[in-house]
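Hi R.,

Here are the chain sequences for the assembly we discussed:
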Amino acid sequence: MMKDVLNKKDFQVIKEGITYPQGIKAAGVKCGIRFNKKDLTLIYSEKVADAWGTFTTNKFKAAPLVVTEKNLSLSKGKLQAVLINSGIANACTGDKGLKDTWETVNYVSEGLKIKKEYVAVTSTGKIGEFLPLDKIKAGLEKAISCLDYAGGEKAAEAILTTDTKKKEIAVNFKLNGEEVRIGGMAKGSGMIHPDMATMLAFITSDISIKGELLQEALKQVVKKTFNMISVDGDTSTNDMVLFMANGLAGNKIVDKKDADYYKFLEALQYVAEYLAKCIVKDGEGATKMIEVEVKNALSFTEAKKVAKAVINSPLVKTAVFGRDPNWGRILAAVGYSGAEVMPDKVDLYLKEKIVENGQPLKISCQEIHKYLEYSDEIKIIVDLKIGKESATTWGCDLTYDYVKINTKYS
Amino acid sequence: MMKDVLNKKDFQVIKEGITYPQGIKAAGVKCGIRFNKKDLTLIYSEKVADAWGTFTTNKFKAAPLVVTEKNLSLSKGKLQAVLINSGIANACTGDKGLKDTWETVNYVSEGLKIKKEYVAVTSTGKIGEFLPLDKIKAGLEKAISCLDYAGGEKAAEAILTTDTKKKEIAVNFKLNGEEVRIGGMAKGSGMIHPDMATMLAFITSDISIKGELLQEALKQVVKKTFNMISVDGDTSTNDMVLFMANGLAGNKIVDKKDADYYKFLEALQYVAEYLAKCIVKDGEGATKMIEVEVKNALSFTEAKKVAKAVINSPLVKTAVFGRDPNWGRILAAVGYSGAEVMPDKVDLYLKEKIVENGQPLKISCQEIHKYLEYSDEIKIIVDLKIGKESATTWGCDLTYDYVKINTKYS
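And here is the predicted structure of the full complex:
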């Protein structure tokens, strides 16, 4: 298999995905929920894997997320298979939705001959519709027969809805001479029926690492990557990030915060940030990725408040789409973010420093207009100059196509 | 003057505006900030009026708001004149912006021969630009010479930016046989240069009322009207509501919470709600007003959190624009609002009850689609069924024209 290798600090980036780590197979098949499109993904680890998941904070949590959390708790953080369908979210479906989900867990458990509590399930698509169990059952049989060490690409395809491209990445690095691999895939904002922009990400690894350390690393990484992106500020009922590590790399187990741990952390951070950025770049109707870095805030939470206010502002987002250096909108968002801000101290950078101590510098609007026109990734830096903490968020512009995608009547 | 009289409970609604109360004159003139459009408004009360104002919570508060707050404090809540320019917001303009604003206060004070601290000033338009003092000075002279008891309409016109229509209302009611009048005008979301959607409202009355009661009434009314609307969730640097009562109606002073007070409160609530709704109906690119009522929450604050999450959700707003009965988006917004919610208890109404106890009822999507298509005002009711408090917000749909208006390069 062709590998595209780029040199990064302590790890190598590989054009691969979820099946790159040892002992991970996957399949993506058509089960008939979405018209003539792949819509069912199965991921399988030959060895029971340590696992950790993070789930939407939406109070209307979809049934499969409830079930997967329950299984992770029953199995004390172990998983061996993940089943994902696209097209129907199985959210707001009440008791029947839960019962259906447990039924799909049974199918997977029986089909793969693994314990029920080692099965994670998730769904993305239209809210308020029930799963077609017969289709899922037949599709799963097909998926099991297609499980393959090279199945990552098809798996990454079958979790998409109206995403315009697959989102995959993989890295490897050495721990005590052994190659350790991480692979990931994600889906972003899109829908068949116009519906929630659901974020899903799955990361696998063959690293051998102590459960608590794995959790800590993932929490830290998710906080700074997946939890820092926004397409439209709407938190889905189905958001989920799931990680599995099966230990098949054969490295000496990482059991303390030593150099090996930080090597893993760095690589994991890269994978998560890459996937998170893929999601916003492929945000509904997006033409530009926007990165907002807030510096020198009183705390990370405060920095995040400011960064999120700017990245979610419809006026900032439409200004970027219009290639309009309308920096007043950025400061206004900083001002209403609710964070501690001293207006007379704020510096703002858009290509160059354009506001110093809350007041405009003489700038060339034409130059900034050009920057907004010709750069795919727009960087905004807000320097609050009142503390030492920083936060970075990623989002996208608000365009006619966002409105178009989301107004199409089902 | 032709008066269109509608019968309302304890008050009459009149097709009039800011100059309807006794002793209030106004003018709206062209001073040359906006090309060939009225852009300078002056309101004048023959008698010093009790006044109260509420100002943006944005940390980047514009210079005129800082100055007006200062004057209201110096004068202990008295005002006699208000000067408003459109076209330039005088926000993020630092010390020079403040100095310029005080200069305009001087012009008004000298021109009208009134105390400086009796002058309120405000601005709406592009952030980061300085006021053209010469134009304001010349325009003010013109405005003073045009001050008129019938000047309300021109005044309401000169505060607009890209609003498509004037927003005016007046009411009268009897207190102890004396007619008391209230008049109001507002501007909503719009801009010459694409910029902040600034909300301004001015209400005058000839009622005689004790200062503390006036403040209490206004706080209560603003909280339930102007603070409950949203076009795009962006809080401007220049938002301001200002009220003046000059006592010229000759009613026995309202000095306790008796029937007279509640009569006034009811009429004031009507005026404020009318103006607030005018603002969202004329929201940038809006085709529909959306009203979200949240019932039976644990507190008003919790009810408001839910109502604001729904009214600000880009996915709910685009669904309404697309006439798409996509109720899952509404529940999702309820779920991420941060308020206490029990998903299994939530009922949802869109034309009819469509969700009961968090689960979909059998509904006719076609009927709801028709409702969304043919009603100008879309009503969404969310019944949380866990408490006794409620809140209502007003907003509008998110359309191609919103994106168009806000992407036009200045």
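Confidence is low (pLDDT under 50) at residues 1-7, 190-197 of chain B. Residues 159 and 207 of chain B are 25 Å apart (CA to CA).

Let me know if anything looks off.

Best,
T.
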